[in-house]
């Protein structure tokens, strides 16, 4: 068999949630340049329209909230009307508190003060949103007895945040990475295994991709500390996950389900 064909997504229909975000845009481009028709789904419509416009395959933008089943059912109907099938689902949308944009100041990010409403909101998007998309879009896949679902987790679903990373040069804690994000990503990894086992006989594969931190305009001191803590001595480029996405989405990973593919520059090895 020609090896390139193994990785081809020609004729496939792929949904990317959170497609307007940093990694989502990359994923949408990667899938399209591998031949897939891409559905860019996000609450932010304008950015998805812009990205879709430049893609080489027939691709569309849909505004939907992954926390709303009604919104996702409307999206599903629109996709089926347009393409008639769903082959690939990338559950990428999440609330991701970033160093470059922390959700709140020091006091409120302390575990002892962390608002339960905030905890619930993050769990709702990151876990229930993933669950909703798998249920609504994955059900179309099982009817066709074929499909690949990739749930995006994080190194923080595997290891705890080292809060000293979030200190400035003088040792002052700037904020704390919240308890909600790692909890949600750990749940995504467990949920993936559940669904892989549950849908294995339906021909639908379900895997997790766990990325490490992407360099994206954080302060120099943070980048230096993160890189030092990483065996490959750098943060990720946003394109570093493209290969893993094509691998998991395509027939190249046809005997793989329930796995967690960790692409983190070695962060979780020590
Ligand atoms: N950026 C990193 O360093 C990093 C590292 C590890 C894992 N991840 C994971 O990768 C994924 C993408 O991260 P990112 O940095 O690109 O995030 P991002 O914040 O840039 O993008 C997230 C996107 O999700 C969308 N979204 C949020 N809530 C939504 C909802 N209810 N319905 C529909 N869309 C919604 C947002 O509008 C946004 O466009 C996330 O799952 C994140 O946890 C990111």
Describe what this molecule looks like in 3D.
This protein has about 270 residues and is α/β, with parallel strands linked by helices. The chain has one domain (about 5-270): NAD(P)-binding Rossmann-like Domain (Rossmann fold, 3-Layer(aba) Sandwich), CATH 3.40.50.720. The chain has helices at about 5, 20-35, 45-55, 70-85, 105-110, 115-145, 180-200, 220-230, 240-250; strands at about 15, 35-40, 60-65, 90, 145-150, 205-210, 260-265. Helix 3 links the parallel strand 2 and strand 3. Helix 4 runs parallel beside helix 6 (about 115-145) and helix 6 runs parallel beside helix 7. The N and C termini lie far apart (about 40 Å). The structure holds nicotinamide-adenine-dinucleotide (NAD). Nicotinamide-adenine-dinucleotide binds near residues 22, 67 and 94.
């Amino acid at each position: 068999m020609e090896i390139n064909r193994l990785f081809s997504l020609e004729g496939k229909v792929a949904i990317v949630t959170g497609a307007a975000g940093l990694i989502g845009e990359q994923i949408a481009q990667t899938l399209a340049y591998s031949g897939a028709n891409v559905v860019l789904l996000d609450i932010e419509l304008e950015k998805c329209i812009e990205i879709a416009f430049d893609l080489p395959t027939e691709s569309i933008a849909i505004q939907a909230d992954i926390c709303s089943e009604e919104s996702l059912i409307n999206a599903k109907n629109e996709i089926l009307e347009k393409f008639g099938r769903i082959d690939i689902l990338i559950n990428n949308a999440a609330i991701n508190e970033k160093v470059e944009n922390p959700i709140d100041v020091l006091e409120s990010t302390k575990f002892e003060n962390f608002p339960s409403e905030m905890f619930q909101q993050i769990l709702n998007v990151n876990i229930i949103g993933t669950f909703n998309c798998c249920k609504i879009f994955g059900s179309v896949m099982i009817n066709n007895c074929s499909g690949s679902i990739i749930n995006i987790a994080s190194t923080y679903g595997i290891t705890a945040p080292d809060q000293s990373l979030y200190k400035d040069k003088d040792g002052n804690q700037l904020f704390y990475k919240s308890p909600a994000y790692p909890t949600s990503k750990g749940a995504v990894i467990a949920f993936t295994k559940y669904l892989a086992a549950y849908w294995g006989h339906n021909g639908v594969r379900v895997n997790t991709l766990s990325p490490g931190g992407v360099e994206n305009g954080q302060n120099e001191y943070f980048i230096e500390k993160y890189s030092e803590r990483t065996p490959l001595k750098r943060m990720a480029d946003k394109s570093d996950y493209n290969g893993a996405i094509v691998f998991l989405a395509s027939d190249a990973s046809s005997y793989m389900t329930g796995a967690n593919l960790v692409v983190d520059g070695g962060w979780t090895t020590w």
